[in-house]
Amino acid sequence: MKKKCQAQRTMAGRSSLLLYFSILFGLMARNIQAATDAEFNPAFLQHIPGESVIDVKKFSHGEPVPAGEYYSDIWLNGEWKGRTVLYFQASVDMDRTVLCLTPELLSLLDLNEEVLKKEVMRKISGCTDISSALPAARTRFIPSELRLNIDLPQALLIHRPRGYISPAQWQTGVPAAFVNYNLNNYRYRVAGTQEDKTYLGIRAGLNVEGFALRHRGNWSAGGYRSTETSIQHDVAALRGQLTAGDFSTGGELMENISLRGMKLASDDRMLPGSLRGYAPVVHGVASSNAKVTIRQNGNIIYETTVPAGPFTVSDLYPSGYGGDLTVIITEADGQTRLFTVPFASVAQLVRPGYIRYQISSGRYRYADN
Fold it and tell me: 60-158, what's its fold?
């Protein structure tokens, strides 16, 4: 009889505990629902007599953003993409503001062609709400930091190498001038005879609106001699730089010479950091949504997730001039496969699909001629 009473008390205690948690979870769910669509009574807010009552409808959908223009940083899936002007406008019912999807903002999102071909994307005009044009997008604007965080599924995006920045976001810098100099004086005495020798080296430049004027020269007892005076301008479409004036050719493969004319040469500084130098391209096939890990000398140098099917990893940072790579594919069911990619490099080796070039034309300059 005693054991039966204890069992009944235990069952009653469990029922009470279950009822308590049910009520608790019900209140939490109600609070969460209220947080997403809250209502406020303006009667509790003080205002100056004679003025209109404060409109609190815009606070019912979370933290509001006042309508206007904001020059902000754009972060896509945790990566900085650039800066542009964001436009926030009041919605049709005037109870909140919406973020307008402008062509400038669209150009920073790296959307693939299938998304851009949609009818709503081709007819962007006026203020198109980003939530209606891209339902999968999750946005959060931080006014205090002038920062817009956008999260988009990888399936909607173009694969960009790590460190990629759109040429439209490149800046030419502010107007500036500089002068570097090297002054040296040497005095020696021989048999009561004293002689001084002085050398002055000059390197100067001027940057204005994307054009760079560069000059090198030196002065000694024989007078002043200019060794290089040229004007330079970047050609983003060719990933290179155009130079006109007095210059020297590159000496990577052969002896450099001095010319007066024009030169067009590639500039690796226009490439993302992950594409500078040489590193092998890794090809593989995943049977499911898999994690790909690449190791070199026992250290992890790259890791990413890929969908089922063939994949390519072409944005490895260069790490020395050799050392085979071990590629580990971890499938969704936990199975792992690995293979080795041989890696050896020389000084001027470039990646597949990229070239280094230099084209020069002009009159040969030697000494004072």
Answer: Ubiquitin-like (UB roll) (3.10.20)
